[in-house]
Amino acid sequence: MSLGRILIFLGVIFALTFAIHYYLWARLVRDPGLAEPWRQIATVALIVLGASIPASMLVWRVLPRSVAIPIAWLGYLWMGAMFLTLVLLWGGELARWSWVKYAHMTAVDAGRRDFLAKVLAGGAGTLAIALSGWGFWSAIRPVEVKRLTVRLKKLPEALHGLRLVQLTDMHIGPMIGRNFVEDIVRKVNGLDADIVAITGDLIDGSVEELGETVRPLERIRSKHGTYFVTGNHEYYSGADDWLAFLGEIGIRALRNEHVELGEKGASIQVAGVDDWSAHQFGNGHGSDMSRALEGRDETKPVVLLAHQPVHFDQAREHGVDLQISGHTHGGQIFPFGLLTRLVQPFVSGLHRRGDSQIYVSCGTGYWGPPMRIAAPAEITLIELERESVG
Known about the structure:
CATH superfamily of the largest domain: Metallo-dependent phosphatases
Low-confidence stretches: none
CATH architecture of the largest domain: 4-Layer Sandwich
Strand order of the largest sheet: 1-12-2-3-4-5
Number of domains: 2
Distance between the termini: 56 Å
Largest sheet: 6 strands, mixed
Shape: elongated
């Protein structure tokens, strides 16, 4: 990225951060008429918290990790709390406007206006703190296994009950470390998996920084191996280096190709495509569904590993039986998933269109704010069963 684009990006971040925090100051400090010294304390706190957001994105390049980590935690925690506060304030403003219109008031006296401002600020602030605590606990607690049954018409009877474990969007990096990875490995190894699939956004950082943190994944056990496809975050972190490293620890990347797994006469095809955005990064990267499925046996079921759900229309056109994806985090912090629906056809769960199905995981880790609300993290155990025909 050129220096000019970096400066424009930083300029947008700073301008947006300032605008949001001015609005928060107006609604939480100015309008309720907060008394001194609380007014000054709240103003300074908002300035510090606002500065922590861009700081959390930059400190990794200029400060030692021991200093950068607490700054990042503060910035990302506040990012999540800020989002929740904004949503609650906007909801409160809409309710207040509706009430005034319903009451047929052309004006509201000063006393009532001040009272409504205090109610809005107090209610939004209190609820945002409570929701932030719940979301934080939900994000950092041990990840649970989500069990799912998917029926496929072409599945050979001998493979009825095949167990596929999906990991996705782990986002190993500044906020998620080796202890998390080792816990995931222990849980996966307790599931007696036939196939393990990692559907992208595994890391946030370079191999040099995170290689040893990721290395425990080499201990994952399954009958037919572990397979990987790139997500968009791999391309921010040196995708080619990561593909080489994963190969060294026994994880096979499927780059617009497929493999056949199983026994003679009873097998399943697993295909994988590069991330939807990969073509932007050159060097031979880019999603190619036709190439991934070229030469496959159409009498056998194919499971497609694709990071983004947006691949699904192409997958259906090529006769894919099941696509498994991530990327959306299930919205991660409700109601952010409503915005995700504007760019992705599915946000979470199992969906069917004709003979093709797609499962979108809420993700195994988290990105940005260490919070999850109404979108719990998951290790997904997909048990494939033969669907009766007729």
